Amino acid sequence: MALIVHKYGGTSMGSTERIRNVAKRVAKWARAGHQMVVVPSAMSGETNRLLGLAKELSPAATTPELQRELDMIASTGEQVSVGLLAIALQAEGMPAVSYTGWQVPIETDSAFTKARIQRIDDQRVRADLAAGRVVIITGFQGVDAGSNITTLGRGGSDTSAVAVAAALKADECLIYTDVDGVYTTDPRIVEQARRLHTISFEEMLEMASLGSKVLQIRSVEFAGKYRVPLRVLSSFTPWDIPIDEEASSGTLITFEEDVKMEQAVVSGIAFNRDEAKISLLGVPDRPGIAFSILGPVAEANIDVDVIIQNVSHDGKTDFSFTVHRNDYARTMDLLKSVVVPKTGAAEVTGDTRICKVSIVGIGMRSHVGVASRMFQALSNEGINIQMITTSEIKTSVVIDEKYMELAVRALHKAFDLDQPAAA
Amino acid sequence: MALIVHKYGGTSMGSTERIRNVAKRVAKWARAGHQMVVVPSAMSGETNRLLGLAKELSPAATTPELQRELDMIASTGEQVSVGLLAIALQAEGMPAVSYTGWQVPIETDSAFTKARIQRIDDQRVRADLAAGRVVIITGFQGVDAGSNITTLGRGGSDTSAVAVAAALKADECLIYTDVDGVYTTDPRIVEQARRLHTISFEEMLEMASLGSKVLQIRSVEFAGKYRVPLRVLSSFTPWDIPIDEEASSGTLITFEEDVKMEQAVVSGIAFNRDEAKISLLGVPDRPGIAFSILGPVAEANIDVDVIIQNVSHDGKTDFSFTVHRNDYARTMDLLKSVVVPKTGAAEVTGDTRICKVSIVGIGMRSHVGVASRMFQALSNEGINIQMITTSEIKTSVVIDEKYMELAVRALHKAFDLDQPAAA
Lengths: 423, 423
Fold this sequence. Notes:
The structure is a homodimer. Chain A is α/β, with parallel strands linked by helices.
C-alpha cells in the first residue's frame, strides 16, 4: 500500500462527465489499496471567467487590497471542483472528503495572486486517510497568517500537489495532463521527438524554464527540494486501463543520477522565441558596472534571462542580455534615458527577431565535447551563433529566429535523440 | 453617524453593471458618514447553476457527507459576490474588504445545507469599520466547530444580514429587494393593496410565514429576538436618490407597539394555496391520540401547518391538519397504512383544492369582534368556511381554493385596507 497524490488539470475537470471519469480513476487506485490524495484544478475556463468579471470592475489590480479580492474570487473555482469530485467519488461508493487551502491548512505568505507555500499541516488529512477516505484538496491556494485567502498564481495547482505530496511524504505524485509525458523536444517541430521514460530533476528544471511547458517550474523546484517522485502522464487514457500499465506510463522525474549515466548525454532540446536581445557596447569596465546596468532594469520589474559579459579591451566591454519581447521597448527606453548617461556606454543595440535553443542533459557534466558537437551541427546548417551561455547541464545559443526549427531538428538528430533509448 | 447593514439580493448582484450600482449606493451611505456593512447574495442564477452541477453527479444529497460537499460548492457563489463588490467599491475610491463566513467567523451548528447561526465574532469587522473600511460579508453561510463550511439554506442571506446587524448592534438593517416594501396584501390580487410604512415584528412574522414572501422567516425571527430594526426597500431606485428619501422608503419592521395602537386593527391579508387538508374521522378520543397520528407524519419529515381537533362526541373525535400539496399523496398513504390501523380511525378524507386566507394584525389583541367581522365578510360573498384557527394576532380560514381571490379582496375592503393610513 502506497500513499499517492493525483493532480488533475482543468481540462480533466471540464465537465461533470469528465469529473465522473476522474472519480472512477481515483476509485480504481483506492480500491487497489492505495491511500489517495487528489488535487484538482478549477473546471477549464472558470478561473478566466471569474477574473474576467473582476476585470470588468477594475481593469488592473494594482494594490494589495485589490489583489486580495482577486484571490477571494479566483479561489472559488477550485473550491467548486473539489466539492464536485467528492460528490462524484461518493456516488461511486468511495468515501471522500474535500478541503480548501485554509481548511488543511496550507499556510502561505501574504503575496496575494502569487503567494508561496510556507507550511502544510498534515494532521487532518492523515486522519481521513487512516479512516479510509479519499482526500481532495484545492489546488492553487492557501491561507496567510491573517486568515486571508491567497492564491499561488496561474498553474499553481501543480505546486500545490507537489507540496502536499512532500508534506505527506507521498510515495509518488502523479500529474495528469493534456500531454502523455516529457519529450526530447516539441513533436510539432521534430516529428521524431520521443517521450522520455525518465528525466532527472535538474534536466526537468532546465526543460521547464526553457519552454517545454509541461509542468509549472515552481512545482519542479518543490519536487527537487523535497525529493518527491513526480510522474507526468496523460489524462486521456481510459480510466479503466490496468493500474500497472498506468503506473508506469508517462515520464518519471527522478533523483537517481546513476540511472542516467548509462543513458544519453543530452536528454532534450528546448527552445524559446519569446525573447529579445539587448547589448550595451563600449561600457567602461569597472567594478559595479553590471549592477548599474541591471539595477534599474530590475527596479522596473523587468525579468532578465541570459546575461553575457565578455572580456574587455582597452578598458571597455560589451554587455548583453535578453528580456521578454513584451518588455523590449520599455527596456530600450530605460537604457537610453537612464543607463547610458550613468555608465557612459557608447551605444545601445537590440534585436527582437531572435530565439534561444538549448541542449539539456545531466550527462553533459561528465562528457567533454558536447558543446562543440552542438556548434558543429549548427555550423553544418549554416546557422550563425549570436550569443552562447552554458551551465553544468545546459548549453544555450541565441540565433536568428528564422533558423529555430532547423536548429532544433539538427540538434535532435546530432545527439541521437531520434533513436529509441535502450530499455 | 450610524452603523448600517445593507443586504442585496441576487438580482441586484446579477451583473458587473449592477454590482457597480450597488457599490455607488453603498459609497453614498459611507460618504454620508455611516459605518457600512454589506451582505450580498450570490449573482442571480449562480447558486442554481452550482447545485445543478452537483445534481448531475448525485441526484439526491441524502447523507451528511454529500450535504457537506453541497455547502462547499454552493458557498462559492457568495464568495465571488463579496470579492466583486469589494473591487467595485475600491474602484469607486472607497476602501473596502470582503470576508467569507469562516473569516468573520460566523459560527454555526453542523446541519449542512440548513445550518443555524450560533455566534458571530465582531472583532475583525469592528476593526475594519474603525479604520474607515466598508466591510462586505458573504450571506448564506458560516463555519462549524470542525472548520467545515456550512450554508443556512435558500434565502439565508437575509438571516445572515440580520444576524450580523444584531452582533454589531447596528442602528438599522436595510434589506434591498425586488419589491418596494410590505403590502396590505398581494397587489396582483387586490389592486388597491397599499404599502405599509411600518409593520410590527409579530405581524411581519405572520405575514412572512403565510406567503407574503418578502423576507425569509428566520431573518424576521432573528430580528425580533435581537430587536434589530429592519427595513425592506426597493433595490430599483436610482443609486443617487437623496439619502434621506431612501432612508425613509420601504417598510420598517418595528418593535414599538404603542405606535401600532393608533393604527388599523388588521394590517394585512395573507394567503397560501400550497396546502392540502387531511382529516381522520371517528378517531377514539383518548390521551396520546394526537401524537399517534402526527408522530409517524413527523418521522417521515412531512411538515404540518394547521392542526385542528374539535370537541368529541360519543368518545370519538375528528382530527384535521394541512400539509404541503407535494406531500399530500405520501401523507395519505402513510395514514392509511400505518395510522388508521393503529388508531382505529373510521375514515381518512382529504382535499388538495383548498387555500388558506388569514387576517393579521397586532391590533386584534385589544379589539373584540375582529374574527366575526371576517366571517361576516366571507358570508356576504357566499364563501363557505371549512376550517378555522386563530392566534393572538391572526385568524385563518381554510376555504375552497376557487374563492381565494374573492375572499382576499372582500377582507381587504372589510378591514378598510383600501384606504390610505393616517400619516
